[in-house]
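Margin note: ligand = biotinyl-5-AMP.
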Amino acid sequence: MKIIHLDKIDSTNSYAKLNFDKFDDKTVVLADIQTAGRGRYDRKWVDLGCGNLFLSIVLKPSNDLKQVYACLPQYLAVVLSNILRDYGLSPSIKWPNDVLVNDAKIAGILCESVMRKNIFQGLVLGIGVNLNAQKENLAKITDKTATSLNIELGCEYVDKQVFTEKLLYAFFENYDKFLHNGFAYIKNEYIKSCKFLGKDICVKGFRDETAGIAKDISNTGALVVDCQGKDVILTMGDIFGG
Ligand code: BT5
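Resulting structure:
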């Protein structure tokens, strides 16, 4: 694993995608400051100041394993949740891959595939974790409740290097097993963290909304919603409620 450490960049995902051909499989791009962090669906990821984590991992797995790529963010969400548990917290996962602590968002994950002439080259898996935020800066996130590890632990400072090493070690420790076994490998752990299961939810997609009871997570990581007795399988969207 090679680590590229940047002082400041617009987005570690954009940088990793731009330089994708130059980077080997499992290269990690880290930045201290991220000026234009991106979320899913063109949303923004806000840099909450010094000491927060922004990283992207370049992955070039074999083409045979394509069906598990879609679940990589869920794998990373499980890895991160386990680390937060080691810090003494009780995180939850909001499908597909928001990680929350006390119902507030502490991390976001963005996975993008890289194509050249319509041929799949690999993926860039990015994660932002709020490790050291000031309470007043959290107010910059207006559409969601956000939190940070230092606030949840009630401490002044969380060591970013230690946290980053734990995260990368845990991610790569079981990465190959995950690739070969797919979502089934993490399904039980993932479901354990899903507080919304069994509750009334609404899932907003690009064009439509699905309301019902969150029934299950399928063997491929899709969300199963019981809509008045009929199962609807969703592979993308944002959960509201639950
Ligand atoms: C995500 O998108 O949560 C994925 C964020 C991925 C960020 C990493 S940082 C390293 C790498 N480089 C990048 O450019 N991106 C990745 P989404 O599910 O769409 O959520 C975005 C929403 O999260 C925003 O609309 C806000 O409501 C909220 N948000 C933004 N910044 C936040 C923060 N620092 N903490 C908590 N919530 C935040």
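The first strand starts at residue 3 and ends at 9.
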